[in-house]
Design goal:
- This protein has nine helices and two strands.
- By secondary structure, it is mainly alpha-helical.
- It has a two-stranded antiparallel ribbon with strand order 1-2.
- The longest helix is centred in the middle third of the chain and has 39 residues, at 77-115.
């Protein structure tokens, strides 16, 4: 398994005060510290998505920045984003096709539900469509973060993302809640919600998703891998 994290200090200290080490305090500390960079990164991300076919690579690049930020407490935003965008462009396309297809299926089923709302089939189609939308979006959240963090084949990433989604319990529900809340807010306030999009809503949501996903990725993949490497080095020594 290839890891692409350099060995840097994980902790970043501000003037005279140590940075929080974990939990909600660290989450809000990073959000506050890098707020304006989030704002400009949001516009870079939105412009990167204009070509539609570039959306998977843009999402992977954004996840890469967030994963590095969560892991190391600091990151070279622009260099990391564009390096990952170029590196993952081709590799991210199959994932984009898969999860884009799931979104289209959910949209079709929800449309059938609306057109048949006068009978029981409408409720059935709507229920299945919502399930496909929520599960597909959550699976995609895991998959794209893992694509940004781990140098593995796409098939392996998709399987591991599915297993982590199923096994992570509360983390998975937190990710689902984040995605559902974000979608509801954007739809309920549309077109006013376009102001939120312009102010950085997509980046903040993805930062939150990356924060949650990185917990099981660290516990179940990165930490065991690093321990394995350490044990192997001790044996070789």
């Amino acid at each position: 398994m290839g890891m692409r994290f350099p060995n840097r200090r994980w902790n970043r200290e501000g003037p005279g005060t140590p940075a929080p080490q974990s939990g909600a305090a660290l989450y809000f500390y990073l959000l506050k510290t890098y707020f304006w960079r989030f704002f400009w990164l949001n516009w870079v991300f939105l412009f990167s998505c204009i070509g539609i076919v570039t959306i998977p690579a843009a999402l992977t690049a954004l996840d890469r920045v967030m994963v590095k930020l969560v892991r190391e407490r600091c990151v070279l935003f622009w260099e990391e984003y564009w390096t990952e965008f170029r590196r993952s462009f081709c590799k991210s396309l199959p994932m984009g096709a898969l999860f884009g297809g799931l979104l289209l299926i959910s949209y079709y089923l929800l449309s059938l539900g609306l057109t048949n709302q006068q009978n029981s089939f409408g409720l059935l189609f709507s229920g299945i469509g919502l399930c496909v939308l929520v599960i597909g979006s959550t699976w995609g959240a895991y998959a794209f973060v893992m694509l940004a963090a781990l140098d593995l084949p796409v098939g392996t990433l998709l399987r591991n993302a599915w297993y982590l989604m199923v096994l992570s319990g509360r983390i998975t529900f937190a990710i689902m809640g984040t995605l559902v809340f974000s979608t509801v807010i954007l739809l309920a306030l549309f077109p006013m919600s376009l102001v939120l999009v312009a102010l950085g809503w997509p980046v903040v949501v993805q930062y939150t998703v990356g924060w949650f996903v990185f917990i099981p990725v660290t516990d179940r993949i990165i930490r065991p891998y690093e321990q394995q490497c350490k044990t192997q080095q001790e044996r070789d020594a």
